[in-house]
Amino acid sequence: MYYRFGKAFHFLSIFFFILVFIYIYSSVPETVAYEIDEQGLLSKGFSRSSFFYTGIAIFAALNIILAVPAKMIEKQSTLKLKRLFPIGDDFRDYMLTWIFSFTGVINVSLSILALFIHSINNQNEISSSSFSGFFYLVPILFVTWIVALFWILSQKFKSLQRES
């Protein structure tokens, strides 16, 4: 039941990333900087089209890599998955929720990274220091989700010990 909230968050994060990425793509110059020197001049960069295609490829690859195991668990595609994640088991619901929401966290993190690239390339519109709170948010989200994963796994191991 809870995994539907994870799926909704995943879907909304996809929508959010696409909106943010299209907006940023339209506002970056032909040479997109990802590093600037002390004077604020381009130190390292790549073409606008490379930025777009690389960003979309990373986004798609991460979403596919992370969503395929969740879909396999959800559809119970193999016999081992059926035994490990039976329908109606709370652990199955928690794992699906975790996987879908973690994919959403990855998408939000990619959106924040794209906003950082935008702030580097448009210093006159927005400074990168105005996003400093968001930059601290990314590691906090990752640590929180990893701790949640270990909590879910510890609960599953405790239930397996009680059964045997």
TrEMBL record:
Domain of life where this protein originates: Bacteria
Alphabetized UniProt keyword annotations: Membrane, Transmembrane, Transmembrane helix
Parts of the chain that traverse the membrane: 7-25, 51-73, 94-121, 133-153
Protein name (database record): DNA topoisomerase IV subunit B
Annotated organism of origin: Mongoliibacter ruber
